[in-house]
Amino acid sequence: MNNWYVITGGPSSGKTTTVQLLQQLGYTTTIEHARHYIDLKRAAGRTVLETRANQAEFQRGVLDMQLQQEASLNPEKVVFLDRALPDSLAYYRFLGLEPDPRLLEAIQEVSYRKVFILDLLPLASDYARTEDVPAQRRIHDLLTEVYLSLPVPVQAVPALSPQQRVEFILDHLIPVDG
């Protein structure tokens, strides 16, 4: 068992805002790799549409980053992850892609202290987010399905103000001896 907490939810559920607020409180956090992957490709001259055109390649790139990140984290340190490996499985399912065998193998080994699934907020479009409202809901449902299938505690986080969500999460952490 490690001391990592996953912050997840469908697109536009406030994950990154929540993780950034936790970071401001002094907690160790991670970044969302899908957005980071898009940003790296944009810096190399590719558009978001070009980057997302080959979804299998996109998902592999995100998975590579996620695998590397989780392998580098200290299991004894409290860390809040902006998405985690099981999120990739939900996206493979959403896209109708055959999951990467490395993902399926890694998911058998995952161990998170607790997963917080943020209730959806109204969909806000931006340069990296291409989903519509039905896709937002479907991804959220797939994330919930994937995490509930794993042997990790899952906690729904209601649609509250960002600060209230952080307080809710901190109030629902699992003590190290619990």
How would you describe the overall organization of this protein?
- It holds the Pfam family AAA_28.
- Keywords: ATP-binding, Nucleotide-binding.
- GO terms for molecular function: ATP binding.
- InterPro entries: NadR/Ttd14_AAA_dom, P-loop_NTPase.
- Residues 5-165 form the NadR/Ttd14 AAA domain.
- It is a single chain.
- The protein has 178 residues and is of the alpha/beta class.
- It has a single domain, classed as P-loop containing nucleotide triphosphate hydrolases (Rossmann fold, 3-Layer(aba) Sandwich).
- Helix content is 50%, strand content 11%.
- The chain has 8 helices and 5 strands.
- It has helices spanning 15-24, 33-43, 48-53, 55-72, 85-95, 101-107, 133-148, 162-171, and strands spanning 4-8, 28-29, 79-82, 114-118, 154-157.
- It has a 5-stranded parallel sheet with strand order 2-3-1-4-5, sandwiched between helices.
- Strand 4 (114-118), helix 7 and strand 5 (154-157) form a beta-alpha-beta unit.
- Helix 4 (55-72) runs antiparallel to helix 5 (85-95) and helix 5 (85-95) crosses helix 7.
- The mean pLDDT is 90.
